[in-house]
Amino acid sequence: MKRIGLFGGTFDPVHIGHIVAAEYVLDACGLERVLFVPTRIPPHKGAPDTPAEDRFHMVEVAVADRPGLGVSRVELDREGPSYTVDTLRYLRTRHPDVRFAWIIGADQLLGFPMWKSPEEIVSLADLIAVVRPGYNEHKGMDVVRKQFPRAALEVVEMPRLEVSSSELRARLEAGRTVSVLVPQAVQELIRAKGLYKRAGRVR
Q1: Is CATH 3.40.1440.10 the right assignment for the domain spanning 2-161?
Q2: pLDDT number for residue 200
């Protein structure tokens, strides 16, 4: 059975930290592919300022030359908030021969029991927690393992990369460089589309 990882997020913008996390998981867990799943509307936030299609295309160009990485429109083509359980139901129905794994930041594990239908999520997919250096993931792991004893939970450590999409948006809006932090193809798309220009321009 093929095993495919699903990496959800707004990716506003996608950056090198996302790419590194996906590639580490791909290698460490022996997955056939990791698919980025850009969120249309995060369940507990408002819709991002950056249009969904632009966020999709940024991920698309970011992974175009990365073997094993891809991008899915599954949440963008569905109306309403992007709940993980709805995405997994849809994919499992259409791909019964695939074993899915949902990639989650280790810092999100503590809040996982508050997600929509978490018991069903762990019945539809494995969980892969990505851990940054210096973060103690054990408390979150203990919570998940205690409340969902049947959950298949793996942990993948990645190198320290101090970068966040919110910080990158601020830099882009101020006209500051994001060189190295954002893939070159994504920087070029941001320039071409005039994204993040409220307070400045991309250099």
Answers
A1: no
A2: 40
